[in-house]
């Protein structure tokens, strides 16, 4: 079973972060971006359903921009579907680590939990963070 | 075990800290750099970019050679980053355990020869690389983990 990743956002955040991912990681064949509402007549329900239907034979991980947003809410309707995983709060540290760790055989649920924990640590107020850095590390 | 030795003029930055470290499953990063080892500001910046769960050591080239040869790094999946080809040359000449050199990125300057879209070398650096190759070191350009390795 193939694993596909879909990044979904209000506006061009999804395609923007995909371009950053390409620069930092390289091959992103398994990832597609879904920029919603670029056209005022955009039909979210139809487009979300299309993604779900197209990936009925795949393991599908959707990462949306914001919890509670309409994009995430629409995907939430499919949350009980097997082999469907939904993460909100799209960010580059999460995406990068996920890409480097994900394989067809990996335990996706466990991987998502671990990578999510790590990526939360990379959101920092640097003015405060530098005050904590004085420890010299050695082998 | 040394999992990778990389030349990257940006030292520990996004590609290195996140893509490569995670891809290599490295648990220890050695930044072998004379300037950073004696400059508190540079050190702080490098430390702030450290990926979580990974040990980060900053040493000058001489002390890096001593540490690796002493065996204290053997227990780690060690990822070594140097800033310049000259630094890599000194390091590899001093450490028998390094058999491969990844050229990730060097600064573009007028008159330098291009080895890849991100790697530019002076004639002196080219000589150093050729010397390493004749020593049996595998030297290749590869910017990000999913790029193909290209031998020089």
From TrEMBL, chain A:
Gene3D superfamilies hit by this protein: Phosphotransferase system, mannose-type IIA component
UniProt keyword Transcription present: no
Domain of life: Bacteria
GO cellular component, one term: membrane
Subcellular localization: Cytoplasm
Principal subcellular localisation of the protein: cytoplasm
Keyword terms: Cytoplasm, Kinase, Phosphotransferase system, Sugar transport, Transferase, Transport
One GO MF term attached to the UniProt entry: kinase activity
Gene Ontology biological process terms, A to Z: phosphoenolpyruvate-dependent sugar phosphotransferase system
EC number: 2.7.1.191
Cross-referenced InterPro entries: Bacterial_PTS_sugar_comp, PTS_EIIA_man-typ, PTS_EIIA_man-typ_sf, PTS_IIA_man
Keyword Cytoplasm assigned: yes
Residues in PTS EIIA type-4 domain copies: 2-123
Pfam families: EIIA-man
Name of the protein: Protein-N(Pi)-phosphohistidine--sugar phosphotransferase
Species for this entry: Companilactobacillus kimchii
UniProtKB/TrEMBL annotation, chain B:
Cross-referenced SUPFAM superfamilies: PTS IIb component
Cellular localization per UniProt: Cytoplasm
Record-listed E.C. numbers: 2.7.1.191
Location of the PTS EIIB type-4 domain: 1-152
Protein name (database record): Protein-N(Pi)-phosphohistidine--sugar phosphotransferase
Species for this entry: Companilactobacillus kimchii
Keywords attached to this entry: Cytoplasm, Kinase, Phosphotransferase system, Sugar transport, Transferase, Transport
InterPro entries: PTS_IIB_sorbose-sp, PTS_IIB_sorbose-sp_sf
Organism phylogeny: Bacteria, Bacillati, Bacillota, Bacilli, Lactobacillales
Enzyme class: transferase
Any one GO molecular function term: protein-N(PI)-phosphohistidine-sugar phosphotransferase activity
């Amino acid at each position: 079973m193939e694993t596909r990743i879909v990044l979904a956002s209000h506006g061009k955040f999804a395609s923007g972060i995909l371009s950053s991912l390409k620069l930092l990681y390289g091959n992103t064949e398994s990832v597609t971006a879904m920029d919603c509402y670029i056209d005022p007549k955009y039909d979210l329900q139809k487009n979300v359903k299309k993604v779900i239907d197209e990936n009925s034979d795949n393991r599908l991980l959707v990462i949306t921009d914001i919890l509670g947003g309409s994009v995430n809410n629409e995907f939430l309707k499919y949350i009980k579907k097997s082999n469907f995983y939904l993460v909100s709060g799209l960010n580059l540290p999460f995406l990068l680590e996920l890409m480097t760790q994900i394989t067809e055989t990996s335990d996706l649920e466990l991987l998502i939990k671990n990578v999510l924990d790590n990526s939360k640590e990379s959101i920092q107020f640097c003015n405060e963070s530098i005050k904590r850095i004085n420890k010299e590390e050695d082998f | 075990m040394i999992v990778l030795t990389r030349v990257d003029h940006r030292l520990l930055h996004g590609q290195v800290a996140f893509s490569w470290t995670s891809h290599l499953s490295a648990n220890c990063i050695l930044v072998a750099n004379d300037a950073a080892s004696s400059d508190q500001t540079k050190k702080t910046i490098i430390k702030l970019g450290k990926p979580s769960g990974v040990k980060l050591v900053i040493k000058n080239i001489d002390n890096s050679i001593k540490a690796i040869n002493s065996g204290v790094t053997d227990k780690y999946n060690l990822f070594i980053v140097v800033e310049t080809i000259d630094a890599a040359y000194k390091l590899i000449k001093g450490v028998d355990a390094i058999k491969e050199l990844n050229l990730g990125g060097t600064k573009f300057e007028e008159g330098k020869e291009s080895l890849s879209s991100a790697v530019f070398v002076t004639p002196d650096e080219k000589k150093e690389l050729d010397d390493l190759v004749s020593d049996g070191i595998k030297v290749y350009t590869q910017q990000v983990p999913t790029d193909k390795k290209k031998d020089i």
